Amino acid sequence: MCDIMVRVMASGVFDILHTGHISYLQQAKALGDELIVVVACDATVRKNKHEPITPEKMRVAIVDSLKPVDEAILGKEGDIFNVVREISPDMIVLGFDQAFTERELKKKLEEHGLGHIKVMRATEYAEDLTATRKIVAKIRKLEGEK
């Protein structure tokens, strides 16, 4: 008897790791047998979010060491569908606050010949300071109080 392994892909910046990240990765892992996480490279973070606080190699190492993660890899600039082809996931799990909607991503996957990949979204993890931007804002506020 041959068991079919389900490969799940998740992605994110993971700049200041917090419990929201852990919840996202636990939810993604629960949907399959193997979890591959794509960590955004510094150039992508700069382009889409902010100046990274933690360098890309450190972020990959940290994410790779987390219990739900089977492998963490560094993302590349450019066509995101190239890395999807490399990983060849059965499913992509979006973080609850990631820009793509499930429908938009599914349509783009189909356009790139990857329509067989399922798309799911993780649910929000409601805990104080779960977002990196909230943590950074709190640090800045504390620094301003000195």
Task: Provide a descriptive summary of the structure in words.
Its EC number is 2.7.7.2. This is RibL protein. It comes from Candidatus Methanoplasma termitum. A 5-stranded parallel sheet has the order 3-2-1-4-5, with helices on both faces. With 146 residues, it is of the alpha/beta class. It has a single domain (7-144), classed as Rossmann fold (3-Layer(aba) Sandwich), CATH 3.40.50. The chain is 40% helix and 16% strand.
Envelope shape: globular
Largest sheet: 5 strands, parallel
CATH architectural category: 3-Layer(aba) Sandwich
Q: Do you know the CATH topology?
A: Rossmann fold
Q: How many structural units, i.e. domains? A: 1
Strand content: 15-25%
The structural class is alpha/beta
Give the CATH class.
Answer: Alpha Beta
Distance between the termini: 65 Å
Radius of gyration: 16 Å
The CATH H-level superfamily is: HUPs
Question: What proportion of the residues is helical, as a percent range?
Answer: 40-55%
Total number of β-strand segments? Answer: 5
Mean pLDDT: 90
Domain Cytidyltransferase-like: 10-119
EC number: 2.7.7.2
Organism: Candidatus Methanoplasma termitum
InterPro entries: Archaeal_FAD_synthase, Cyt_trans-like, Rossmann-like_a/b/a_fold
Itemize the secondary structure elements and their pairings.
Elements (H helix, E strand, L loop, with lengths): L6 E6 L6 H12 L3 E6 L2 H7 L7 H9 L6 E4 L5 H8 L3 E4 L7 H10 L6 E4 L10 H13 L2
Provide a concise account of the structure shown:
By secondary structure, the protein is an alpha/beta fold. Helices cover 40% and strands 16% of the residues.
